[in-house]
Amino acid sequence: MSRFHQRLDEDMRDPEFAAAFDQADVELQLILTLDSLRKQLGLTNTALAQRMGRRRQAVSRLLNAAEPNPRLNTLVELLAALGVTVEVHIRRARAGEPPVTVDLDVAAEAPQVPA
User: Which of 3.90.580.10, 1.10.260.40, 1.10.418.60, 3.40.50.150 is the CATH number of 1-115?
Assistant: First the structure.
């Protein structure tokens, strides 16, 4: 195990650190997943920005941010521009499970994206 992972394991024993780490990890997973989908659809940041009614720089910052923290309305615009939906299912957590997981479940056929 690397020194980084040893240190991370040690830090994760602190509940406050673990909660902050999990939240940042979820935000990053979500943004990386949506950016991956953008690439699968063959959309540039410029094309995606046009679909969202935003400037390319704003979309680039959102998808490349070291600390992404998009507002809900921005995520809704991004999801609509990509032609996908998010399902929220709330249930009791299993032991050791993070509060949010991100999973991309898109069929091999690309979704119909609004023009």
Answer: 1.10.260.40
CA distances from 80 to 43, 76, 93 (A): 14, 6, 29
How many C-beta atoms lie closer than 10 Å to residue 55's C-beta?
13
Assess whether pLDDT exceeds 70 at residue 108. Answer: no
Decide: pTM greater than 0.85. no
Q: Are 41 and 48 in contact (CB under 8 A)?
A: no
Q: In 41-71, which ranges are continuous DSSP H helix?
A: 45-52, 56-64
Give 22's pLDDT tier (boundaries 50, 70, 90). Answer: confident
